[in-house]
Design a protein that fits this description.
four-stranded antiparallel sheet; HIT family, subunit A; homodimer
């Protein structure tokens, strides 16, 4: 099992495996991705995975392969488990919590090796629906305070298989990255009585220089201070603190704009490795007036250096205004 | 030239190149390191580099190669330059500062491809002295608020050459990573009237379970909540907010314990890629009673995933207690 440990100075949480062998386990290098000769995510190999949490889409879409279009399974080596008791304890200066929570894998498609830009809008809609559905379910467990969806695509993004998958982690804490956004949004709201993300959307749609794509319900932009070249955010126009509460028309629209953004990134940057994550408010409703869920997509062209790690200062060689213009002008088939 | 842009929500700074060509520049992949057939850092190729800021050690140590033991040069594509004017400006919600500062490279040794664990204590002492000396010099420029030293060793750590080098960045701001530590240390001091790092040193030397090495002036530990397997910190026993003010006896002692730690990491983990950085207080003296400089060394065995990037929650498969015991027990030649 695992435990969450908090750094006593900066209050950063780390999930540490506490059932390690008495000799330390060095994780295998992720220099390469497994060949896929016997991919555990391909149809026919379902027995290599833990049992499904669920499979198939609710809309009756049936795969040509083994009867499923999308599967959700527990991670085989879960970071956290709902079966674990919830205990908080201390050790002098230090604090820790048992690793209660959940860690699930979304197998996005039965087809091996296709990228999200190649998935149909219906498949992407099904994936978004599955994300929502799992969050709603996990939310019923009162010990869980936040749920995050993220994706690793390619070796540079930390992926370990090349069959398309994304991940969910449900936590008994609110991790720092979103807590900091909530705090920043709160500061802005206290002064302005407005949501800062709504203000960003207003300024970006007026200026248009960092705009990549627009739809009825969403905009896609290169943020003003992007950490990596071609970092792209998708924001809902409607103020909403939580991703899981978007409505069916918005799910449809999100699938379309997400597919357009990924197609532009793949066409313009030779199908790079990438991560994305969905930032959504933790459970509770304190931050509802001022927090605004969104999606952040980061192409991984170069590994981070000691500058980012040591100072949290990022160095970006591409102006977001140039990146936006380049992505916007591409002709997508 | 470049500019510093601040994310309006989380106040994270990004250094963006603002003289980019009108078509976006995609940085080259760092999948591999340049071959070194014509290494710009090797003796005889000094003409391939910008002119030295200084060369050689003050102790008269003379290299067998081209007369230098260590060189400091400006980065060929500097992230920041002292020649730049210092202007702050706004754009609606957004804030930026011109890229005033400095970015320097320490060529640690004339010998190509040797690791820091293979350098002599005298060479490492010379490197530490050079770090200190450059910080003292840059400190004279009133526009500079903080200076950071960091190292990228190997592709996974973001290195671009395999001739040993480390880097310095001098900034007109205090970046988030250290500002957060200062803030955490301040909270502790307000309650306890003690430095939290002094408390950590006290607890770790008493417990011994996470101790890797000890010397007269320093301790090396695996921190309680390590971000990556075998993350190791070196802390001075004496409370001191700033690295650049350590005394000659401490420089000597630091070279010895650093060499021991790097030898243990190299022997135990098959010479992994790694980053390190020195966290030292920004200029000014507000945090002198409660901030404590230190060095953080992070082996880079696997690339970060969307979990770390998206939530700032780290997943570590090796307990620091196991890592410390493993490193401690190794027999070093």
């Amino acid at each position: 099992m695992s435990e969450l440990r908090k750094d006593p100075v900066v209050e950063r949480w780390v999930l540490v495996a506490d059932d390690a062998l008495r000799s330390p386990v060095i994780p295998r290098s992720r220099d390469r991705i497994d060949g896929g000769l016997l991919c555990p995510f391909c149809p026919g190999n379902e027995h290599l995975c833990p049992p499904d949490i669920f499979a198939n889409a609710p809309n009756g879409f049936v795969s040509v392969h083994a009867g499923w279009q999308l599967r959700v399974i527990p991670n085989r080596s879960p970071l956290l488990m709902v079966e674990e008791g919830h205990r908080r304890s201390g050790e002098g200066l230090y604090d820790k919590i048992t690793g209660v929570g959940a860690n699930e894998v979304f197998i996005e498609t039965p087809e091996h090796g296709i990228r999200q830009s190649q998935m149909s809008p219906a498949q992407l809609e099904c994936l978004i629906w599955a994300y929502q559905s799992r969050i709603h379910d996990l939310r019923k467990d009162g010990r869980i305070r936040s749920v995050y969806i993220y994706k690793n695509c390619g070796v540079q993004a930390g992926a370990t298989l090349d069959h398309g998958y994304s991940l969910l982690v449900a936590l008994p804490i609110a991790p720092r990255a979103v807590a900091e956004e909530v705090e920043g949004a709160r500061r802005h709201f206290l002064i302005k009585e407005r949501c800062i993300y709504c203000d960003v959307i207003h300024q970006e749609t007026a200026a248009e220089t960092r705009l990549v794509a627009e739809s009825t319900c969403f905009i896609a932009i290169e943020p003003f201070a992007p950490r990596v070249p071609f970092e792209t955010w998708i924001l809902p126009r409607r103020h909403a603190p939580r991703f899981e509460h978007i409505e069916p028309a918005e799910v449809h629209d999100l699938a379309l704009i997400f597919r357009e953004v990924m197609s532009r990134i793949d066409a313009g940057l030779c199908s790079p490795d990438y991560n994305y994550w969905i930032h959504s408010a933790a459970f509770g409703n304190e931050c509802d007036p001022y927090y605004h869920w969104h999606m952040e997509i980061l192409p991984r062209i170069a590994p981070p250096t000691g500058l980012e790690g040591g100072t949290d200062l990022y160095y970006n060689t591409t102006l977001p205004e140039d990146a936006a213009e380049y992505l916007r002008r591409l002709v997508i088939p």
